[in-house]
Write a structure and sequence with these properties.
The chain is built from seven helices and eight strands; from the N terminus they run H-E-E-E-H-E-H-E-H-E-H-E-H-E-H. By secondary structure, it is α/β, with parallel strands linked by helices. An eight-stranded mixed beta sheet has the order 1-2-4-3-5-6-7-8, sandwiched between helices. The chain starts with a helix and ends in a 12-residue tail after the last helix.
Length: 276
Amino acid sequence: MLKRILIAIVILFGLAATGVGALALNANRFIYHPSTAIVAPTLPGVSVEHIRTSDGQTLVAWYSPPQRGGPIFLFFDGNGGRPQIANARWRRIQEGGAGFLAVYYRGYSGSTGAPSEAGLHEDARAGYDWLTAHGYSAQDIVIHGFSLGTGVAVRLAAERPARALILEAPFTSINDVASEHAPMFASSSSIITDSFASRDWIGRVQMPVLVIHGDHDSVVPFDEGEHLFALANEPKQFIRMPGSDHATLVRDGEYDHTWSFLASHPSGAGDGQSRE
C-alpha cells in the first residue's frame, strides 16, 4: 500500500515539474489510506476503548491488559492499518504475557477527524496519557511502531519516557523513502510536508531501541532501517530478517527477537504507580 502511495506522489512531482504545480499541494493526502469500517475484536481479552485527544478528537483503540508483571505495547500501525487484520500480532503479544493498546489514528477505524502528521502525534500522546491514567508506569510501556507508525513512535519516545522503543520496518523520513524509489524526487522533497522525519528525533530518544527490518522489504528500503539505527543512541540492537518483506515480519518470527530484547533490558523499579 505505501509503495503505491509513494508512486502516486512521484507522479505528482513529475506533474509539478512540468507546470501542474497545484497538484503537488495534494501530495500529503496520499500518505494516509484510512479504513472507516468499525469492527469489533474477536480475540478473547480484547476490548474497544475510546480515547479523547487534547484537540477534541475521539480515538478508537484496541486494548488487552498484560499478565501480571508483563509489559504493555503502545502500538502504532502503518498508513493502511486496520485492527482486524492484525490478529496474528495480537495473539503473539498475548501469548508472550504482554498487553497492548493499539491506537487507531484520527480518521481510521471509527476514530473522528482527519489524519495529518501533527494530528497523529497528538493521537500518540493521547494513547500514552491513557495508559498512565490507567496506572501504567513508564517502565511498563513499550512504544512500538510499524511502517508509518515508526514515525509516530520515534517522536513520542523522544518526548515521553518508556521501557523501550521498537521500530518495525522504519524509515528516516517519508521524503527519503520517496527519493530512494525515485531519485529525481530528492531535489524537491518539500512537496511532502508530512514527512515524519524520524532522523531528526531519534537522537533524542533515551531508552533501549530495537530496529527490525526485512532485507527483502519492497516498500521501505532495508538501508532506511540501517540509517535510522545508526543515528540512535545506545543501548540498541538491529535485527536483519533474511528474506522478509514489509508485512511478513510478524509471521517470520519478529516477536522471538522482541522477547529476547526485552529480557535483556528488564523493567526498572518504575515510578511506584499501581494499575487499576
